[in-house]
Amino acid sequence: MLDISIVIPLLNERESLPELEEWIVRVMTANQYSYEVIFIDDGSNDGSWEFIQELSQKNPSVKGLKFRRNYGKSAALNIGFAEAQGAVVITMDADLQDSPDEIPALYSKIISKEYDLISGWKKKRYDPITKTLPTKLFNWATRKMSGIYLHDFNCGLKAYSHEVIKNIEVYGEMHRYIPVIAKSSGFKKIGEQVVEHRARKYGTTKFGLDRFVNGFLDLLTIFFMGKFGKKPMHFFGVYGMLSFIIGFAITIYMLVDKMLHLMRHEKAALVADSPLFYIALVSMIIGTQLFLAGFLGELISRSSGERNQYSVSDKVNL
Question: Angle at Cα 55 formed by Cα 53 and Cα 59, nearest 5°?
Answer without folding.
Answer: 125
